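Appendix B. Raw example, untouched.
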Amino acid sequence: MDTAFTEEQDQIRRTLRDVLLKHCGPDEVKVAVGTEAGYDRRLWERLAGDLGLPGLALPRDLGGTGCGPTELALACEETGRVLLPSPLFAGCVLAAPLIASLGSASQRRAYLPKIASGELTATLATPAPLATALALTGPNDVPWAGDGRAGGVQARPDGTGWRLYGQAGQVLDGHHAGLLLVAAHTGGFARSRTALFLVDATAPGLRRTRLMTLDETRPQARIELRDVPAEPLGDTATGFSVAHPHASTPPASQTLTALTRTGELAATVLAAEAVGAASAVLASTVDHVRVREQFGRPIGSFQAVKHRLADVYVRVEAARSAAYYAAWAVGTETGPGAAPDGTEGIAVAAPLALAEALDALRHAASEAVQFHGGLGFTWEHHAHLYVKRAAGDELLFGPAHRLRAWAASRAGLFSPRPPGAPAATSPAAPGPLAGSRA
């Protein structure tokens, strides 16, 4: 693993940071989240048109720039630094990879160039929480999309196509996205399976309601579908079979694997965003303690303050290392302790990196509020934005202890010792991110 960044990667970071520092300060963020779209349209058009941000990880033949997960993670570290409200995560991290891996050739040509240019925004709508559907905190081969009973989203053929009926909550950017990628249950109980469907935002029978959220920089919506026409993602709505509740080994599938891989990329990007946010709030706190005086001297000169901020710095740098490793692992699909196909190494690296980054951001934001004193509790100050981002991301994609527990389970740390097998006399070889709190 080469830990040095290329000149191109450093240039992506510097260029994006310069633009965001000029046009996306705390005041601009507060104004943007209050708009109908939930983000600054003019800034998004500039990021898409001038910098190619939405197509950063898409191939060139589909309108992207041909970069990979590492470049996307570096870019999202900068967007996380300023808490940029945008459709980047929902469209380019959740929806676009699924369309690229499962969509037909015509679907990829129709949607991905528009997503890469910023012309089309998209999102993933699942009846279950995203952490479940993307296999971040547990297996996603359980019946989470409807199971042939009431609830979730049901799909049925109508002779000429497919119709969806049901509801999905907590859909990121669902109130404004132009394209919805909906996970729906089909086949009834005997042939139970879950498939992904493409739904146009203007389709009849579709109702979208923006929800009040803790973190307004990640707007969410409730999606209601009443016999909405939909197009299966791919040539047919094959989906993945849902095993009987008593089955010991549920069957694998292409759709299941794609959702899991999307979860690994999402965890990596979220970790990078959290690292950027933690770095920004730490820098703001350090600047403040240098000028705030108590007992006739700056409070930053007190040893206790230095120790606490040093602890925050160590946590942030550890989380940054974990996020960079996860980006490398997702990009190469390899890593120490990986399975022959690379899946297990990524499955451990990505959720662990997210858990470390969420902890670092929560700790950095909490200390920022404390060191800013009464100012840190006010609505006018920006500290509360980072507190809400930390809490909101953990509610959506965590909590951190479940991310660690599932990663440890995937790594085999909780596997029972076979009967009669001798106890291990030496520790096992370290897997990815050895030493993190699994």
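End of appendix B.
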